Structure formats: C-alpha cells, structure tokens
Amino acid sequence: MMRIATFSRCLARGVMLQRQLARPVSTASVGSGSAEVGAPPAASTGPTSEEKQPQLPLRKWSVWRKISRVFSYQEGLFIVPISLKDEAGSATKRQLLPWIWLRDQCRCASCVNQDTQQRQVKTFEIPRGLWGRVKLRQDASKETEQVDIMWSDGHFSTYDGSFLHYYTVADERPNPSVPGRYNESWGAKGPKQPPIVQYKKVMETEEGVRILTDLIKRRGFAFVDGTPYGDPEHTKRLLERIAFIRITHYGGFYDFTADLAMADTAYTNISLPAHTDTTYFDDPAGLQAFHMLSHEPDASSKDANSLGGESLLVDGFNAALTLKKVAPRAYQILSEVPLPWHASGNKGIAITPERTYPVFELSDNGKRLVRVRWNNDDRGVVPFHPKYSPNEWYEAASRWNALLEDEKLQYWEQLKPGRTLIFDNWRVLHGRNAFTGKRRICGAYINRNDFMSRWRTLNRTPEEVNRVVIG
C-alpha cells in the first residue's frame, strides 16, 4: 500500500508539473533573460505540446518497460517510473533530469560524429534557457521506450528510455575497467576449467582472440598451447594479437636468461615470492606474458629431469577478499596507507610513481577492489600515517604475506616450450621456484587500457560498449 501511495504522489506531481507548463517557458523563468522562447517550427516532425502522453500496454511491454510517463518542466525532464526500484533493487534517486544535461547527451549525427563517436555539439554554447516538448513512445525493435524531445531552438533529439531511467537510480556508470566485475576466483587447484586456447585459433580468428581475452578477464590468466618455440617472434606476434607491446626500461618484447643482464632478481635463478610487476609505475602493466623457449641442464644441474623453476600464481583478489573476511582491519590498513615504490637498481634508472599508492587500490566509491600492487622487494619506507602506526602496517602486511604463502591459495604450473602463459598483472601475483640449468624465457607487458579495449570490443555489443565507455 505504501508503494502504491508513493507512486500515486509521483504521478500526481507529474500531472501538476505538466499543467504548469502548458504554455512555453520563458527564459526569464530560469534567470537568463526576458525574451520569450518561440515554439518549435510547425513543419517539424517532432512532438508538440498538444500531444497526449501515450498509454503503453502494461502487460505486453512489462518485461522491458521502465518509464510510465514523462513531463516537460521548466528545470528539466520529469520522469515517472513504472517502479520506484529497478531489477537490482536500486531505489529512485531523482526524477528530474536537467535540460542542459540532456542536450549534451544527444547522440544524433549533428551532435556526435558517427564515424569517430566524438562529441561535436558546442556544449558551452547551449542556451541556458533551453527547454523541450516531450513525447514517450514504445520501440519494440529495441525493446525500450523512446523519449523524443523537440527543443525550443528547433533541434530534435531521441533518447532510449533505459538510458534515462538508469540515471534516475544511479549517479554514474560503474568503472568499465574494474577487474572484479567478472571474476571467477580460484586457489591451489586453479580455475574449475583449465583456461586454455590454441595458438592457431588465436592467430587465425578473431573468435580465438575473443576467447583468450575473456579467459584472462574472468579467470585472471590463460595458457596458449601450441605456440611455436623455435623462434621467439611467434610469441611476439601472439601477444600483438591482443594489443601493442608496452615499452619500459627493460625494453619491449623481452628474451632473456638468468644472466643479470638487467639489475633485477628476475634475471637470476633464485626463487621469487608472489608479487606483481611494475609496482613503481603510476599505471602498472596490465598483462604480462611468459613463454619458456628452452630449459637445459648445465654443470650445476644434479638431476636433468628435475631442474626446478615451477611458476607460482596466486589470485590476488581472492587472497585480498579472504584477508578482508578474516582480518578486516588489516585489509583496511593496506587499502589506506600509501607507500613509495621504486625501480632504481639499473644505472641511470630511478623510477617511482608521481604519488604513493596502497597495496589494495579501491574504486572511487571504495566498495570494489580494483588493483593489487605488491612487491615487497620494490617497496620504499613505510610512512607514519595519521591513522595507523608503522607497527600496525607491518602487522597487517604480515597477515597478507601469510595468505600469499598459504598452500591453499597457491597454484603451481611447470612452464614448458609451446605453452605461453598470459596473466592479469593487476590481479594475479606470480613467483617461481629456484632452478638449475640454462633457462630461456621470452614475453612482454601489455597496457591495461589496450587489453580492456580489445576485450570489450570482442565480447560486448556496440550498444553495450557505448553504455560503459560513454555513460
């Protein structure tokens, strides 16, 4: 009964507002002048103020209908929703959408370049006294209502009802690059289904690239089997099927052995604990790839059949959320205390971010884990934070480290020639066991934004892509 009463009040308010606006609005009423705004041209195919609001058949369109009625108000478009909550249970936050906001979102050919998808309307020349006459109609082909607006300056716009309704229950679109949205977490046994795709399929079809990028997006890593290993160029071309290879102080595509050619422990044969790479960049590498081209025994090898060097992967999001459950204060500390990170071992190199970053980086609203940044070897001095003492940070980091060393969260895989490993460096921590013999590895970094662009365009419809990247 309370819900019906609330809806009735919204409908009554809308009717009252429509009656108030039966005559054209003057710019004086919105404080921008005294000249009356003229009516739209008579020849226009757009709606007029005399048209009645359409009564849409509720049952037939109830699956996708979201808007009951719309009204023109001096400050904006007033929306009466079918329900005061959407399918996810989000309550209505606003019913009035400002005219200037609406006009700025017009996607017609004169407002947006249809080839480049770039805005070409001159936003700051939109008259502040602009208003519109509105019409609600159904569009079964798109399974949504359409709202037409004939603007007071003669321009005509059409908006999807789902787009308008979304902004009555939400303030903004969620960040499209947040890794956690499609996660399938895993531990020592790895994902439920092995994330494997064949090299030939990736190289010869876009469907292969779609599968590869989606496996990485959902599970954090993927293997590409059948990669030729006689020449590292094959691996390079494989990675370029995803996106451009990132250039760093290590170069671009790398091909190395344990010869300390660069001052980094990766160029040794010692064991490495679970870590993420490039913590010292403001924008750490998005993807990282390893392909073991060869591993042969040498004079130091005691057993040619057991050379070591097994690769370690840890689902950092799974580990972080486990920490949040068992030690919420530790999770909070590692989310709030920013730290310095650096790469300064090589001559002429002194890289550090332009700002400090915590171990766990959260979304703008603080509700979702976006990125794990962890390499204790590249960490600088723990600061004296206004809320947390260094002792508290070390205790929290100790709890985190214990989880990374927990066998239940560690997935081990022996890399071999012909199998390329590609993983999400924002989510998955990697390490290795010590090894003997001569091992040759090739691989590269790929930027997060480039990877996400490739994933998005292959795994989402153009309409879905526009919704998440534009709003």
What do you see in this structure?
The longest helix has 19 residues, at 2-20. The two termini are 35 Å apart. With 471 residues, this protein is an alpha+beta fold. Mean pLDDT is 83; it is low at 1-63. A six-stranded mixed β-sheet has the order 7-8-16-11-18-9. It has a four-stranded antiparallel β-sheet with strand order 10-17-12-15. Strand 5 and strand 6 (156-160) form a beta hairpin. The chain has helices at 2-20, 99-104, 161-169, 199-204, 206-219, 233-240, 316-326, 328-336, 390-404, 448-459, 462-470; strands at 67-73, 76-81, 96-98, 132-139, 144-151, 156-160, 196-198, 221-225, 254-256, 272-275, 287-296, 311-315, 360-362, 369-372, 410-413, 419-424, 428-432, 438-446. Helix 7 crosses helix 9 (390-404) and helix 8 crosses helix 9 (390-404). The chain is built from eleven helices and 18 strands. Helices cover 25% and strands 21% of the residues. This is trimethyllysine dioxygenase. Its cofactor is Fe(2+); L-ascorbate.
List the helices and strands and how they pair.
Elements: H1 2-20, E1 67-73, E2 76-81, E3 96-98, H2 99-104, E4 132-139, E5 144-151, E6 156-160, H3 161-169, E7 196-198, H4 199-204, H5 206-219, E8 221-225, H6 233-240, E9 254-256, E10 272-275, E11 287-296, E12 311-315, H7 316-326, H8 328-336, E13 360-362, E14 369-372, H9 390-404, E15 410-413, E16 419-424, E17 428-432, E18 438-446, H10 448-459, H11 462-470
Parallel strand pairs: 7-8
Antiparallel strand pairs: 1-2, 2-3, 4-5, 5-6, 8-16, 9-18, 10-17, 11-16, 11-18, 12-15, 12-17, 13-14
Helix pairs in contact: 5-10, 7-8, 7-9, 8-9
